[in-house]
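User: Can you model how alpha-D-galactopyranose sits in this protein?
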Amino acid sequence: MAALALETVMLAVCVLAPAARALDNGLALTPAMGWLHWERFMCNTDCNAEPDNCISENLYMQMADAMAKDGWKEAGYEYVCIDDCWPSASRDAQGRLQADPKRFPGGMKKLADYVHSRGLKLGIYADVGTKTCAGYPGSFGYYDLDAKTFADWGVDLLKFDGCNMPKWTLLAEGYINMSKALNNTGRSIFYSCEWPLYEWQYTQPNYTAIRQYCNHWRNYADVYDAWTSVTGILDWTAEHQDLIVPAAGPGGWNDPDMLVLGNFGLSLDQQMTQMALWAIMAAPLLMSNDLRNIDPKSKALLQNRDVIAINQDPLGKQGRRTAKVNNFEVWERPLSGGKLAVAIINRQEIGGPRFFPITLAMLPSWKFCNPECNVTQILPSYQEMGIQKLLSTTNVQVNPTGTALLVVTPSTLDPRLHEKWLYFHRDNKANSIL
Ligand code: GLA
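Assistant: Here's the modeled complex, given as structure tokens:
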């Protein structure tokens, strides 16, 4: 009796307690959606040789046009983001950062106005250290001035990189000072950090502090256009989930880096895996691809409303890997309304499609299908799988390196059981609750 009472109190405390304090700038209630130039366009500054693909105002104007006219905006993609290599090699006479005059002849304010006129927001890039990763002027010693400059231009998001810090022990202070500087401008500026990524080389980052000052934070290496890059990010995330998942919630999110769908390196199945798992991980959906010329299948996946709804779910809980069985991985994310999103990845890279049996034994969340659940498959194709019973077995077919993404809705929502699941889910004990 006493044990039961204690358990009830613990549950109430854990379930009702909000996630650690988030950066209080009213932004990132759900992960940001938009486009970021780095993975696809990198530091291409040669506008003579490649006028359409160099880092210039034209590139962002054209992406903004595409985002506004090809359904991206309606799907929720909002930020058009500049990465490294936009500035002049030196600051102006007043010490301000300035855009390269040849590549940005109109200047940043005009570019921000253009992006805003399309109903979108502009993101920019800077670095906490003395130089950016590509060697352009860094913000070290200029946090207040740079924040003010970005606000004056009408910038809406800052990606703040972590290269070239004189001493790594200054990283936390630098990131915190820029957060305060942005707040002091009075303009709402989304703050995307790489603070933990650079600290991991020396120490385990303090995620409570990071969440308090950043809206997104990169933890792990840069994404590139390859399946091994996507799996590397997933493996790292699963290995560190006990530490990083509790840090995510409305106001601040783990950032596993850009979506590379629509480029060259991922098969369609692998693109589905990236999209599904970025939804499970409550990741920012920042595409890095060429929206002026994108494969229709990639476009449809990126604009899939059911996947986006999982990513943007208002409950704001990041999912986690809950099982590894027979070269399949199961990842689950609790959703609002007592629903669950379930991703089943086929990690076997040989052979053909394989069947994953959904049973009590194989799928941790199946315990909630008591007496039954309604199951909808979202990927690889939309399919109502109907009512499934606790003791029934249904097979889902998954291609090599592909993912089946399901939404599972328990027919009777036992609120106590659901709360319990959320609680145990947080501590990665979802398997042991019944
Ligand atoms: C780092 C970041 C990348 C990108 C480059 C730009 O590597 O992690 O996302 O911004 O710098 O130089």
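A couple of observations from the model: The pocket of alpha-D-galactopyranose is lined by residues 38, 83-84, 132-134, 161, 194, 222 (CB under 6 Å). The two ends are 18 Å apart (CA to CA).
User: Helpful, thanks.
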